[in-house]
Amino acid sequence: MRRPVALRLYAALATTAVAIAAGAVLSMPQASAATGGVTGYATQNGGTTGGAGGQTVRASTGTAIHAALCGRASSSTPIIIEVSGTINHGNTTKVSGDSCNTAAGVIELKQISNVSIIGVGGGAVFDQLGIHIRDSSNIIIQNVTVRNVKKSGSPTSNGGDAIGMESTVRNIWVDHVTLEASGGESEGFDGLFDLKDNVQYVTLSYSVLRNSGRGGLVGSSESDRSNGFITYHHNLYENIDSRTPLLRGGIAHIYNNSYVSLHESGINSRAGARAKVDNNYFRNSKDVLGTFYTSEAGYWQVSGNIFDNVTWSSPGSDTNPAGPNPQSNTTVSIPYSYSLDGASCVPNIVSQTAGANKGNQVSNGNCSPTTPTTGPTNPTPRPTTPTPTNPTPGPTTPTPTQPSGTNLSIGAGADGSSKASGTSYGNVRDGNMGTYWSPAGSTGSISIKWGSATSVSRINIREASGAVGGIGSWRVLNADTGGVLTSGSGAGVITFAQTSLTKITFDITSSTGAPRVAEFETYAS
């Protein structure tokens, strides 16, 4: 593959050098600790909380980061590591302990869980030093810069990946980071954000990826199709040859990203992958969407994108560009709530919010930046069967006030997810506490539905005898739209803003033992 990136980068650096020589001041806003809630697929499968609730420690060397991991009571003890300064080969050594598995020359997050690495102070820069995540879950990386990680030359780190994940990784949120190289493979660099060998439930948000031959991949080969459920939103891809990203199998949701100067190809969906591509802005680029360099097709669903000075190749045996008039060839259902900025404002909102040292600002959904104040609130993940969880609203506590009026569930319909043997959906709307519905596992959903729109503002979840207290966290969904009406934990009376709908879903996302819902009552008030 050609590698023109380095020549273009040198020109950019020369321009910067001239500005500095002329006395220009390049400002760097002060970084701040993690803010805002987790978004995208990282909200699923139990959610992503990182080290929330654990000890907070400071580190200014890679060795100190490793020491913080190794000093925990166990490999799953929550910890928040606030990082400042420059982390490099000279200050990153292996540290041993029962709660860690580290290595020199790389930030090693291996066989661990429940960790946040947050850049603070004047900024955290991982210089020529990659971050490696392996056999781990529930990790947050926020507000850091990772630059010039090499796989050949000297020094080398992490196979040349700025951030790499592999081998049974679940629930990772990478947010407000800057990932950059100084060229392509011939200059010794590889991918900026690579996922392979069974990596699932990952979100990359509000980040900058630039000056590299390869943006990133999902799946290391056409046969590595165990990865998926990846969200990319509000990121800037700039001066990249290809792989923004490359997808092999699985599902990706790609929305509100800004793409500038993609030289060979962009979103490369292949080997059965399916990508939902919404409201992105592509500018001054080539072949920004399609299946490239293989005959094994991938698929896409497109809406609201802007293609500004984009050129397209002619179709061939291993080239299937989506353009010049991209049309959907699949459909992708997204299980979480999200707000789309209009594509026309994406370059502006991404320039204000994406990358490290931007104050962790996010879009307010109306093309304006805002600084959130709340931290991640989703429950700790269970790296097992995928289960949707609440993407944004905070938990609510069921009120003890009993509903008034008519139970609208009597006589209505019911359905849901897989049910345990011997139970029935209809048991939750028969007025009989002696019968119940139970999911096939510890999580699942049950719905009440009507033939016409019905106003509901309160429900009452009654657990069967012998199972009271078993239901843990849950969401209440408007099944017509997929929107989250409220969320919380524990059965009982639950209130929310009155909503007109034809179907309402109670989605159990955690429980102790097998949950049993005897009655799913619905009320207008």
Automatic annotation (TrEMBL):
Residues 78-288 form the Pectate lyase domain. One of its GO terms (molecular function) is lyase activity. Keywords: Carbohydrate metabolism, Lyase, Polysaccharide degradation, Secreted, Signal. It comes from the Bacteria. Residues 378-401 have a biased composition (Pro residues). InterPro entries: Galactose-bd-like_sf (IPR008979), Pec_lyase (IPR002022), Pectin_lyas_fold (IPR012334), Pectin_lyase_fold/virulence (IPR011050), PEL (IPR045032). SUPFAM superfamilies: Galactose-binding domain-like, Pectin lyase-like. Residues 1-33 form the signal peptide. Its main location: secreted. Residues 356-368 have a biased composition (Polar residues). Residues 402-424 have a biased composition (Low complexity). Residues 356-426 are annotated as: Disordered. It is found in: Secreted. Belongs to the polysaccharide lyase 1 family. This is Polysaccharide lyase family 1 protein. It comes from Plantactinospora solaniradicis.
